[in-house]
Known about the structure:
mainly alpha; disordered N terminus
Amino acid sequence: xxxxxxxxxxxxxxxxxxxxxxxxxxxxxxxxxxxxxxxxxxxxxxxxxxxxxxxxxxxxxxxxxxxxxxxxxxxxxxxxxxxxxxxxxxxxxxxxxxxxxxx
Length: 103
C-alpha cells in the first residue's frame, strides 16, 4: 500500500512565492480547489461510479469521501460549500454502515 502525503496550504504558498509571475501564482493557489471539486463531481457524486464502488469496494468509497473531508478540514480545499461537505459525510457514513454490515 502506498503512503500518500497531502500538500499543505503552507507548502503551496511557499512554492508560489518562488514564482515571479502573479498570474501563475494565483493559478497555483486556486488549482487545488478546482481539482478537489472536480474529483467530487466527476467521481464521488456520479451515481454510476458511486454505486459501482459501493458494491465492489465500500472501503475505497468511504476512504475517498473521508480524505476529501480531511482536505477541507485542513483548509486545503477552501471553496467547498456546506452542501457538498454534508453529502460527502453522508456517503462516508453509508459506506461505513455497509462495511460494518458485511464484517
